[in-house]
Amino acid sequence: MFGFFNINKSGGVTSRDVVNKVQRLLPRKTKLGHAGTLDPMATGVLVLCVGPATRLVPYVQELTKSYRAGFRLGCRSDTDDSTGNVVETPDVRSIDREEIAGALERFRGRIQQMPPQFSALHVNGQRAYDLARAGVAVELAAREVEISKIELLRCDGRDLEVDIDCSSGTYIRSIARDLGEALGVGGLMTSLVRTGIGPFRIESAVTVDELSRETIAARLLPPTMALANLPQCVASESEVAQLRQGKSIPVALNDRGVEACVVDAAGRLVALGEVTASRLQPRTVFANALD
Predict the structure, then answer these.
(1) Model pLDDT for residues 107-157, shown as the tens digit of each residue
(2) Which one, 127, 170, 205, 223, has the greatest CB density within 10 A?
(3) Which of residues 171, 189, 222 is at a domain's end?
(4) Is residue 80 located within the same domain as residue 130?
(5) Contacts from 202-209 at CB under 8 Å and sequence distance 24+?
(6) Boundary-marking domain end, from 181, 197, 213
(7) How many domains does the chain have?
């Protein structure tokens, strides 16, 4: 098996739980992994990479992530969401929709974001959340992230609903926290749904309970789905054989140094490579996927 499963993760389970459950439905020794963790409280799109597609995890992670999040103003927590120790802000002032929408605009574009203390980032070989649970304050460096869309959908008093499109590595909890601080009242995240990762959309995702040994193969999505941003070349049977031997093939691309993907006549992914002087030199060859 070679491709992806677009899973609609339910709340209260880890991404690893989902992988383990799907793994039991696959043939023995089939590789399986996820391309981007969702916290247990979060729901929505979780992309699972099957077989040789585990080598495509970085390409999935580079795709734009889409979220619908619930924020609450007027409180703070140590986890920056409602699962932590929540402290209400005393005498919180009233804030109207226009002020909130204006404050959200400050987060659009490339910004420096401070990750939550309770995160999976490594600090001196340990997870930040393990240190935080032990009461150890750690210095986490701000990271550049890009938010291409941030839209206030609903404002019900202090409770907000926000749509966000962002780059990999963005913490939605941090946006809730920083929005609250920008407004001077504190804020945290109350809910999170990942509605998409690039072309993997929640509307076409399946739950784990919908999968069975009999139906799982029909739910497999092609590996090229994660490579829509790359130029694509079609190789003949003889060219496929050359690629499998590590040899370059001619392509109708002239941009030197461009990465491209190669498919065979049936549209199956054969290789990823670099274009140099109208030839493609394979860098990753998916030989076993064509056997």
Answers:
(1) 999 999 988 866 566 656 666 566 556 666 776 778 999 999 999 999 999
(2) 223
(3) 222
(4) yes
(5) 202/8, 202/44, 202/45, 204/6, 205/6, 205/7, 205/8, 205/44, 205/45, 206/5, 206/6, 206/7, 206/8, 207/7, 207/8, 207/10, 208/7, 208/9, 208/10, 208/18, 208/21, 208/22
(6) 197
(7) 3
Backbone angles phi, psi at 165, to 5 degrees: -115, 130
Q: Under a CB-based contact definition with an 8 Å cutoff, are residues 18 and 208 in contact?
A: yes
What 3 state SS string does 231-281 have?
CEEECCHHHHHHHHCCCCEECCCCCCCCEEEEECCCCCEEEEEEEECCEEE
Active-site residues, by number, are 39
Indicate the SS3 state at residue 109.
strand
101 and 27: one domain? no
Same domain, 162 and 218: no
pLDDT in tens, 71-101: 999 999 989 999 989 999 998 888 999 999 9
CA 171 to chain centre: 11
Residue 47 lies in domain? 3-62+200-222
More confident residue, 229 or 120: 229
Say whether both 214 and 181 belong to one domain. Answer: no
Whole-structure pTM value? 0.91
Beta carbons of 247 and 283 less than 8 angstroms apart: no
CATH number at residue 58: 3.30.2350.10
Statement to judge: residues 164 and 120 lie in one domain: yes
Whether 89 and 191 share a structural domain: yes
Asked if residue 243 lies in contact with residue 249, where contact means CB atoms within 8 angstroms, the answer is yes
Do 207 and 7 contact (CB within 8 A), yes or no? yes
Angle (nearest 5°) at CA 224 between 8 and 284: 120
